[in-house]
Amino acid sequence: MAPRRPDKKSKKREQAAISRAAAGASKPVSPQVLVKAAEFQLQAGNVQDATTLAVKALDQSAAGSDDELCALNFLGQANLETGDFEEARTYFLRAVAIDEDGSRDEAIGGGPEKFLCLAQLSEEGGNDSVKWFEKGTAALKKQIQILEETRRRSDEQEILLEELKKKLAMTLCSVAEVYMTDLSWEEDAEQRCESLVTEATMVAPDFAETWQTLANVRISQSRVDDAKAALKRSLELWKDLPPEDPGVPDFPSRVGLARLLMEVEMEQEAIEVLERLVGEDDQSVEVWYLGGWGLYVMGENQKASKSNEEDWKASWISSRVWLNQCLHLYKLQDYEDDRLGEHANELLAEIAKDLGEAPAEEADDDEWEDEDSDEEMQG
Questions:
Q1: pLDDT tens, 211-228?
Q2: CA 130: distance to chain centroid?
Q3: CA 103 to CA 150: how far, in whole Å?
Q4: In Å, how far are 46, 173, 315, 321, 373 from 370, measured between CA atoms?
Q5: Which of 24, 35, 144, 373 stands 20 to 30 A from 158 (CA)?
Q6: Do 320 and 355 touch, CB atoms closer than 8 A?
């Protein structure tokens, strides 16, 4: 006799209930099913319908129940996505009152995520952000401990364990960054940064962002050689991976990496990172600006070292292409960073003193994608 499969039937029943809820059927459905339907609506871009369903779920939930936690967490995330940060904070704080240590199941809104969101949403910043990050860290460590103590972990559990370790490392790095900025005046700020980044690199040694944060700390300590070593380690972890690989840091992280590389005079590596970023998104004003600035510095150094004249001229011609494209996008997008625009124009003025104004074909905004410009960008 074939074994019964109640899980599949249960799944079908749940899916049917979600469909009924999403369609606004009058037949009663549970609060958690309403939240599932709200998730469906949010993914479809129907923010108002999603919010209506989640509020209905919240209204039907008993105080302090899993249902209430599930609805509150969803409403917090939904408001976060729509940019209503005050509402998001309110819902997350209510969720924390139910799940104070993040020990409840993540499927119903438990776990560390709400603490990490509150750290980012903190209006006070500083110690208040650190407080929420530390609560998130404690919850993450508990989840990791449970998985590490599990014998014969499945492939899915192994993947989850690695993801949790990366999230923990990222959280530790975030706390370190608070101590480098908002709390830099505290007596033990440097010691705390050191401890946090060391732990992050031990927890997730194959996570590029941890080494990037370590490099940032080393720069603040004027330990430039150590910063360079950390940046090289960060680069080695992902530079040969395809763009879609999860090991590749996200776009903003790599923009930050390029800035750090330029700060320690690793302009060639910075340009390589920026060229890859342009290949992924050619509409970033900041990326074109950093590329133009990096190439300008390279040319300046080549000129100062009295190397082949063609070398520094080639670097500055490439710099001019990047900077002109930066300013082209700057105008199109009404970019708000005035200092960036001013600096780009200053660099172009310096280049013009030696090379003259850009030829008409190079200065034409519509021509930047042609083969000649591509060759120049490669320097």
A1: 999 999 999 999 999 999
A2: 19
A3: 17
A4: 41, 41, 18, 12, 6
A5: 35
A6: yes
Q: Residue 240 carries which side chain, given as an amino acid letter?
A: D
Contacts with 330 (C-beta within 8 Å, 6 or more apart), sequence order: 285, 340, 341, 344
Amino acid 310: pLDDT = 85
**Long-range contacts of the stretch 82-88 (C-beta < 8 A, 24+):** 82/47, 85/121, 88/117, 88/121
Round the average pLDDT of the chain to a whole number and report it: 88
Say what percent of the chain tops pLDDT 70.
87
Burial state string for 268-286 with b = 16 or more CB within 10 A and e = fewer than 16: ebbbbbbeebbeeeeebbb
**C-alpha separations of 164 from 20, 97, 202 in Å:** 35, 24, 14
pLDDT band at 361 (very low <50, low <70, confident <90, very high): low
Decide if pLDDT at 341 tops 50.
yes
Closest among 338, 353, 362 to 300, alpha carbons compared? 353
Return the residue matching tokens 């074909």: 361
Tokens for 142, please give them.
């508990």
Rounded distance between C-alpha atoms, residue 188 and residue 175, angstroms: 13
Residues 149-175, buried b or exposed e (16+ Cβ, 10 A)? eeeeeeeeeeeebeebbbbbbbbbbbb
Tokens of 192: 């705390």
User: How far apart (Å, rounded) are the C-alpha atoms in residues 155 and 135?
Assistant: 28
What is the model's pTM? 0.81
Q: Report the distance separating Cα 180 and Cα 184, nearest Å.
A: 5
d(CA 102, CA 134): 12
